[in-house]
Write a structure and sequence with these properties.
This protein has one domain: Alpha-Beta Plaits (2-Layer Sandwich). Helix content is 49%, strand content 28%.
Length: 148
């Protein structure tokens, strides 16, 4: 009889704990928010003006198009004022609400190609030309969390 009561008590506790789990998840103190893609770029000495001009024209134009389509919510350029050896000296940041699935990404790629009036090979060549004065060192995908 004692074993039955112990087993029944254990089952009751296990049932109560499993029923409480969804409530605990609802009470999690942090709320997930938007994603932030952060690319760390190292610009070679002497390449700063050329890269700054590209960022202020072409890169900005690309981001403004993505923003107008609702694909991103914001973007920014951040300088690492005191970079240590091997660190990026510029960070390019793009903020967006969600990650598109494969079909949506293909649709966006096609829309971008039509809007920019460039082919994929032209885009790759242009990116390769920037490699003369800049190197992509890092890439991070972060998700913002805010207290509830």
């Amino acid at each position: 009889m004692k074993r039955i009561k112990t087993a029944l008590a254990a089952a009751t506790i296990a049932l109560a704990a499993s029923a409480a789990s969804p409530a605990l998840a609802q009470d999690y103190p942090l709320k997930p928010g938007e994603y932030v893609q952060m690319n760390g770029i190292y610009v070679e000495d002497g390449g700063e003006l050329t890269y700054a001009e590209w960022l202020a024209t072409e890169w900005k134009k690309f981001q403004e198009y993505a923003k107008s389509q609702g694909w991103i919510s914001d973007y920014g350029i951040y300088a690492n004022v005191n970079p240590r050896e091997g660190e990026p000296n510029i960070y390019l940041v793009v903020q967006f609400a969600s990650i598109p699935d494969a079909a949506e990404q293909e649709r966006r790629d096609k829309a971008f190609d039509q809007w920019s009036r460039t082919t994929v090979s032209e885009q790759v060549a242009a990116s390769g030309n920037r490699a003369e004065y800049r190197t992509v060192i890092s890439s991070m995908l972060l998700q913002e969390y805010t207290p509830r």
